[in-house]
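Quick one, probably user error.
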């Protein structure tokens, strides 16, 4: 409580001096370091805690294993990122898309795939206001036809995609899913 009052008082007095020196980065940095020093534990504070409570216990085997798994996950994620980058470069080189365009396209296809997985299993996309779940036009679009997934799928409406994108993605859904696996 006393520290909070002191910080507030220090802040008010320092703010007055800093506002007089607008643009003075040295004064602002001095103020920030003083404020952070008040909030952080000092070496003396840490020593006092260690003296009364003892040093922290060593990490358990489970904590060490968890740390090792975290490092392994980070390493594998980096390997996957590099692999994806090499694929994107190769695809961009072969096709007419730049690496950035290829990456955006892959992201959109992946988002579409994830959004339609659950909708495929529950039998439909977003329902229009007033339509019942047994209405066959609910997942097909306004005309009730939809675009085919090699003759079996229908357009599933997903937020963030244009009608043209959805029709093309629905038409090639099975091939895209096979390629993503």
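Nope, works fine. Designed sequence:
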């Amino acid at each position: 409580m006393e520290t909070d009052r002191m910080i507030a008082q220090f802040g008010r007095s320092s703010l007055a001096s800093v506002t007089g020196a607008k643009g003075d980065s040295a004064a602002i940095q001095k103020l920030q370091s003083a404020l952070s020093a008040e909030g952080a534990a000092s070496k003396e504070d840490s020593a006092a805690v260690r003296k009364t409570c003892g040093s922290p216990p060593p990490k358990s085997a489970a904590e060490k294993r968890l740390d090792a798994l975290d490092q392994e996950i980070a390493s594998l994620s980096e390997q996957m990122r590099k692999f994806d980058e090499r694929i994107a470069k190769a695809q961009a080189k072969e096709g007419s898309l730049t690496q950035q365009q290829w990456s955006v396209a892959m992201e959109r296809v992946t988002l579409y795939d994830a959004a339609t997985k659950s909708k495929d299993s529950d039998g439909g996309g977003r329902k229009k206001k007033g339509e019942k779940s047994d209405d066959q036009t609910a997942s097909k679009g306004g005309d009730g036809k939809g675009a085919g997934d090699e003759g079996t799928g229908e357009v599933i409406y997903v937020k963030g995609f244009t009608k043209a994108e959805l029709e093309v993605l629905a038409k090639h859904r099975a091939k895209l899913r096979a390629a993503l696996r």
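DSSP finds seven helices and no strands in the chain.
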